[in-house]
Amino acid sequence: MSKTILDLIGNTPLVESKILNKNPNVQLLFKLEGQNPGGSVKDRPALNMIKSGLERGDISKQSKLIEATSGNTGIALAMIAGIYGLDIELVMPENSTKERVLTMRAYGAKVTLTSSDVGIEGARDYAEAKVKNEGYQMINQFANDDNWKAHYKTTGPEIWQDTQGKITHFVSSMGTTGTIMGTSTFLKEQNFDVQIVGVQPTDNSRIPGIRKWPEAYLPKIFNPKKVDTVMEVSQQEAEIMARRLAKEEGIFAGVSSGGAAAMALKLAESLDSGIIVSIVCDRGDRYLSSDLFD
Questions:
Q1: What is the CATH number of domain 5-35+155-287?
Q2: Which tens digit of pLDDT belongs to each residue from 3-50?
Q3: Stretch 116-122: mean pLDDT, rounded?
Q4: Which residues of the sequence carry a binding annotation for pyridoxal 5'-phosphate (predicted)?
Q5: Among 159, 226, 238, 293, who pairs with 184 as Cys (CB 3.0-4.6 Å)?
Q6: Residue 116 catalytic?
Q7: Prediction pTM value
């Protein structure tokens, strides 16, 4: 049966770490979300947010859509909005990698770059002002329940099935927090003892896709009760691990994936036994114009 590109979202593979993980009693599995057609885990919530919004009538082809993004969500929204014939403006800091901007434009989105001095918070402020003053509608990944529900419906069940229900720890970087919220909700329903580990940056570390949000910008979908442990990763640790993933495991991924993997490995060293699943949220090719792989 022929498939559309949207049918290829999800069902991403789990691959076992054979080099980096040195603990023979712990299985460390990487979930390769870069295998999604848009190249990241964000294809899942982007599809669910747009499809559900259209089904409810919250948005239509007449809607002027806008969204602030650090990159991956924007690419996914651009791809899926284009397929559904929707116009969308994506707002991101001007220091975002060139690959991200060009990919969004290739999918047909309008891209607006805001000052890097105010980061993603500034992009969010810009988008909210357009909603307030110019009649735009925001997808609002930070407060949209269809974000985390995408992972409740897909990511969590896939991990549970692919580990035969034996997963003991789930590790995910935290940005908008949709991945960890939805996956945690599902896994805890299956086995409350599964440990959910969120990864965020140390103070003064700048890691694309991972944030330690100021209180005023904390995603409304985030519920701290759904995260058992928070581990902090430095920018240097995340970047080194992204390079090691590519060189030693053949997994070409971005810096936020490196951050999650670094903490998953640290966790593996500390356990007597277990099965850890760590999210590799995107592909490394959208970081080639940065100095990550220099």
A1: 3.40.50.1100
A2: 899 999 999 999 999 999 999 999 999 999 999 999 999 999 999 999
A3: 88
A4: 72, 175-179, 256
A5: 226
A6: no
A7: 0.94
Class (C level, CATH) for 42-138? alpha beta
Task: Provide DSSP, the chain.
Answer: ----GGGGSS-PPEEE-SSS---TTEEEEEEEGGGSTTSBTTHHHHHHHHHHHHHHTSS-TT-EEEEE-SSHHHHHHHHHHHHTT-EEEEEEETTS-HHHHHHHHHTT-EEEEE-GGGHHHHHHHHHHHHHHHH--EE--TTT-HHHHHHIIIIIHHHHHHHTTT---EEEEE-SS-HHHHHHHHHHHHH-TT-EEEEEEEPTT--BTTB----GGG--TT--GGG-SEEEEE-HHHHHHHHHHIIIII-----HHHHHHHHHHHHHHHH-SSEEEEEEE-B-GGGGTTTTTT-
Confidence of residue 119 (pLDDT cuts 50, 70, 90): confident
Among 31, 42, 188, 226, the one annotated catalytic: 42
What is the arithmetic mean of pLDDT over 221-233? 97
Q: Which residues are annotated as a binding site for pyridoxal 5'-phosphate?
A: 72, 175-179, 256
Is residue 60 annotated as part of the catalytic site, yes or no?
no
Question: CATH 3.40.50.1100 spans which residues of the chain?
Answer: 5-35+155-287, 42-138
